[in-house]
Design a protein that fits this description.
The complex is a heterodimer. By secondary structure, chain A is mainly α. Chain A contains 13 helices and no strands. Chain A folds into two domains: 42 residues, no CATH class; 219 residues, MetI-like fold (Orthogonal Bundle). Chain B is an all-alpha fold. Chain B has two domains: 57 residues; 238 residues, MetI-like fold (Orthogonal Bundle). Chain B has 14 helices and no strands. The chains are: A mainly alpha, B mainly alpha. The interface between A and B is large, with 86 and 92 residues.
């Protein structure tokens, strides 16, 4: 009975996912008249067409997305682990104020600060550069990282760090060798959140990278939709390829993700 | 003699104490510099400074293509109160946020309870429910636009059942709810996964103890499981609020703020159009400041409420 209900609910829920899959492997002109039909026979034309486009839209966007996402996630994870750990362990008044200031930035939408951010980036001459987007990502997502890491740090016993300090390890090396490995579940959830969010970010790259500096995967799809209003084959092929890395990424990390969320959250 | 030695000793002790305190302060400062300063600095430059700049702009008539910029005091804010577009956006934002916080939380809990069994079958469904979460909002928007168009799949299926066409995305009274439903669909899997993790962390002994005490399934859920899900509720609500406040991509791709006059335009959407398209940056900044005040209030209240619930356990 439970299995039956699960299947019915799940099947209804998954219709849009099926539509993406089915149309990716369907003959382009057949998509508009019959978007839910099975792709018989399935074909790879759409994917091949996207991969071999003369303007290399897909490959260029993929490179940009990988670079921006990879760098942002790496910097963010290290910085917010250090900051989150510091704030969770300090009991000074300034530490509490810093926590408050950071957490109040947790829910600020990028649109609200994007206008002045553009000014700040212009000031540093970083507009339409990958570095500018990277810095903005770090500043914008750091509160969420602190939220995850600080919650998790409170669950691990301080004695382990103190033991490392007595052994004569400096603060930084104690952090690297003892604390950071302990934070692995929190790092996994932070990495997944950052990775998915930044990979899928649409507005920030659209405005900060601008039209000249190439596109990321997400802005690439948006531009393709505008350009090829009729060519749904290309659009679905592009959407499938854009989604593939992030789905694989999640499936590979999902165990750690769940563990990080529960262990950090249930006791935090 | 003895007193002299005593004073000297005391004085020496006082000096070393100050020195030690000073050294401690320096060490704390160094600690802060290494661990906290880099993150704080970037945050300061790209979030806090822009907010201050926004507030500054909001008091002026700044428009990069229409100088001169003059100080106008609170005039932008006074204008906002009578701006039909802004007031509509405020209403749209509130409706969208409420739907987006309530629906995935409730439906996600229901699905999580449904999927709370071991085995590949339930694991596979859990993964399926999560897939939309990692999809790009542009992908989700393009697919749902095809499904909900006037001649789209949903209307075709309803047509077989004899239901007349529904303007899911073209009816100004309906488009906002369709949009909210699409976003709720995308976030549902997130809530499912978090609630499932919470459910699976509930100790069996507690359930058994409660059932020995004569608690039925409903009472067990209300008295044992639900209180233990408080942290899951916190995470879900925080992430859903973040999603709702920054709702923009779906709106831009699916409805572009329409149909009609701004029936799906949130404050975030209107801010960008006023600021980047119309270039009325002073006025847009005033909107941003109002939005920030609303968000700060909302997040302070939710964090406090949710955490109080967690602490009480």
């Amino acid at each position: 009975m439970r299995a039956l209900i699960t299947t019915v609910v799940g099947a209804i829920f998954a219709v849009p996912l099926y539509v993406v899959l089915a149309n990716t492997f369907k003959h382009g002109p057949d998509i508009a008249p019959d978007p839910v039909g099975l792709p018989v026979p399935p074909m790879l034309d759409n994917i091949a067409a996207v991969l071999s486009r003369p303007d290399r839209l897909f490959w260029a966007s993929l490179g940009n997305s990988l670079m921006v996402t990879g760098l942002s996630v790496a910097v963010l994870t290290v910085l917010s682990a250090m900051l989150g750990h510091y704030l969770a362990r300090t009991d000074s008044r300034w530490g509490r104020i810093a926590t408050l200031v950071l957490l109040s930035g947790l829910m600020i939408p990028p649109q609200v600060i994007l206008l002045p951010v553009v000014q700040v980036l212009r000031l540093f001459d970083l507009m339409t550069t990958v570095q500018g987007l990277l810095l903005f990502n770090v500043g914008y997502y750091v509160p969420f990282g602190v939220f995850v890491f600080a919650g998790f740090v409170r669950t691990i016993p301080i004695e382990m760090e103190q033991a490392a300090a007595i052994d004569g390890a400096g603060r930084l090396s104690a952090f690297w060798r003892v604390v950071f490995p302990l934070l692995r579940p929190a790092s996994a959830s932070a990495i997944i959140f950052f990775g998915v969010w930044i990979w899928n970010d649409f507005l920030n790259p659209l405005i900060i990278l601008g039209p000249g500096q190439g596109t990321t995967i997400t802005t690439g799809i948006y531009r393709a939709v505008g350009q090829y209003q009729v060519d749904f084959g290309t659009v679905f092929g592009l959407m499938f390829l854009a989604t593939l890395p992030v789905v694989v990424f999640y499936l590979a990390l999902q165990k750690q993700f769940v563990k990080g969320l529960t262990s950090g959250a249930t006791k935090g | 003699m003895t007193t002299d030695v005593g004073t000297r000793r005391r004085r020496a002790a006082a000096i070393t104490a100050t020195a030690r305190r000073r050294r401690l302060i320096w060490r704390d400062l160094g600690h802060f510099g290494v661990f906290a300063a880099p993150g704080m600095l970037v945050y300061l430059c790209f979030v806090l400074a822009p907010i201050v700049v926004s507030f500054g702009y909001s008091l002026t008539s700044y428009n990069p293509f229409n100088p001169p910029t003059t100080f106008v005091g609170g005039r932008n804010y006074a204008l906002l109160l009578r701006d039909e577009e802004f007031l509509t956006a405020l209403r749209v934002t509130v409706i969208l946020t409420v739907i987006l916080v309530v629906v995935p939380n409730v439906a996600g809990l229901a699905v999580a309870v449904l999927l709370d069994r071991k085995g590949w079958f339930y694991n596979a469904w859990r993964a399926t429910f999560f897939v939309p979460v990692v999809l790009s909002s542009v992908v989700v928007s393009v697919v749902w636009t095809r499904l909900l168009a006037d001649d789209g799949v949903v209307n075709q299926v309803l047509g077989w059942a004899g239901v007349p066409k529904v303007g899911w995305l073209s009816d100004p009274d309906l488009a906002l709810y369709s949009l909210a439903a699409i976003m709720a669909w995308q976030m549902l899997g997130f809530c499912v996964v978090v609630y499932l993790a919470g459910l699976q962390a509930v100790p069996h002994e507690l359930q058994e103890a409660a059932s020995i005490d004569g608690a039925g399934p409903v009472a067990r859920f209300r008295r044992v499981t639900w209180p233990l899900l408080a942290p899951a509720l916190t995470i879900n609500t925080v992430v859903l609020l973040i999603t709702a406040f920054k709702a923009y991509d779906h709106i831009q791709v699916i409805t572009n703020g329409g149909p009609g006059s701004g029936s799906t335009a949130t404050i975030a959407f209107v801010i960008l159009h006023t600021g980047f398209t119309a270039n009325r940056q002073g006025y847009a900044s005033a909107m941003a400041v109002v939005m920030l005040v609303i968000i700060a209030t909302a997040s302070a209240i939710t964090l406090r409420l949710l955490q109080r619930r967690e602490v009480r356990l």
